[in-house]
Amino acid sequence: MKRFVISGLLAGLTLSSGMATAAKIELVVDYPYPEVFNPVHEELAKRFAEKFPDYSVRFRAPTADYEPAAQQALRHAVTNQLADVSFQGLNRQRVFVDRSIAVDLTPFIKAEPDWENRGYSDSLMSLGRVNGIQSGIGFSLSTPIVYYNADLIGKAGFSTDNLPKTWDEIITLADKSRSVNADTYGMHYDWEITGNWLWQSILFSKGGKILDDTEQKVAFDDTIGQESIAQLGRMVENGTMQNYSYNEAAQLFVSGKMAVFSSSTSRLTGIEKQIGDRFKMVTGLFPIYGESGRVPAGGNVAMMFTKDPERQKAAWEYIKFVTGPEGAVVMTKNTGYFPANMLPIEDPNGLKGFYEENLNQYTAVKQLPWLTGWYAFPGENGLKITDVILDNLQTVFDRSAQPQAALQNMSKEVQKLLDR
In whole angstroms, how far apart are CA 157 and each of 153, 163, 178, 179, 284? Predict the structure, then answer.
């Protein structure tokens, strides 16, 4: 992993130095998840520099995930070292708006001719809107989905043409699979992702809420929250799911030893590559309950941090390029994410043929009608609240606490942080 990160940095530095004599402005850019995005960002920076010879790109060392990315940017704000363009998690935009770090992109958008025909739908643009400010534009989006080992569930009598629609059905399927497939495991629910995304997912899928409308009181401890935490508890109570880390569970799944794996669609390309021809894998929709059920969008947005007018011009060109049709195609074909730009999805020269040939990738796109925002906590304690949720969910999955007790404790600790 260290070699991968360093090679990505060197590639970015080489790109920058190679263009330095011609470029008038060298943009500083940072992003998370190097194992997923290094090749994507390197390719996009190269193409951008070719199209805009007055501009070049220099990457900062990528951060591991969204929380370190936000923490690093907040430190850089104090030391006046902010990147010009920063790729931040959807649920981390709010802190940059609250602290007046994010540049409102609305004036740039209004100055663009024919913006409404550029492929940026209002529903997807809304994912980058915080308190009336267009703080970011979606770069790579994801939803939670369910991965199935078709060979294992087939031997257990289940068909990929009629995949489960509820978690109880999924748990039953996973149990049946491990009972008829010796030395295999049932399932894994990737609850650790950024602390609370998969908690929000199961809650929102039933029409639940995180906080009340005033954003001053915990709302996830209501009846829907109690049902949701109980469902997570049922995953582990009979050994259907073990207390494994993501890496441990993913290795079991790609090696053909696990029937069901629920995680982000962003993992898809990597998982498919690791599986190779070991077995047939299919993806299914994340269970949605009732008309009010939703799934939270994951992923990240491109944000502008520079306040310098000339650098803002360059940063805006870069944001448009990476989130536009060309950037969307490069990003999608090299990851499991889907784009926030709709133009290439139906374009035969863009992604239309790609999705027709890669139906597993299309599962997340089919969930667009149920898409909702990834909730961001208000105030100074947003990152601490995420840690509290992570720690309490851990007690459910390691069975050190009963699910309802874990929910009560999580609610109490989150409420204390909201009251500060």
Answer: 6, 12, 12, 12, 17
Q: Determine how β-strand 25-30 pairs with β-strand 55-59.
A: parallel
Is residue 206 a contact partner of residue 215, using CB atoms and an 8 Å limit?
no
Nearest to 313 by CA among 7, 25, 20: 25
Burial 381-410 (b: 16+ CB within 10 A, else e): bbbbbbebbbebbebbbeeebebeebbbeb
Residues in the chain: 420
Q: Domains (ranges, CATH) in the chain?
A: 2-142+297-372 (3.40.190.10), 144-296+377-419 (3.40.190.10)
- pLDDT (mean) for 289-309: 96
268 closest CA partner among 333, 327, 317: 333
| CA dihedral sign, ordered 343, 346, 350, 352 | positive
How far is residue 115's CA from residue 108's CA, in Å, rounded to a whole number?
Answer: 10
SS3 89: strand
Residue 10, pLDDT score: 41
Mean residue pLDDT across the chain? 93
Does residue 88 register a pLDDT over 90? yes
Across the range 319-337, mean pLDDT stands at 95
- 116-147 tens-digit pLDDT: 999 998 989 999 999 999 999 999 999 999 99
**Beta carbons within 8 Å of 120's beta carbon, 6+ residues apart:** 137, 323, 340, 341, 342
For residue range 215-244, list pLDDT tens digits in order.
999 999 999 999 999 999 999 999 999 999
What is the four-CA torsion angle of 47, 48, 51, 54, rounded to 10 degrees? -140
What pLDDT, on a 0 to 100 scale, did the predictor assign at position 16? 45
3-state DSSP helix/strand/coil percent for the chain, to nearest 5? 50, 15, 35
Contact, 171 vs 187, CB < 8 A?
yes
Listed residue (332, 302, 331, 326) closest to 315, CA to CA? 302
User: Closest by alpha carbon to 338, among 114, 140, 183?
Assistant: 140
Q: Give the pLDDT score at 8.
A: 44
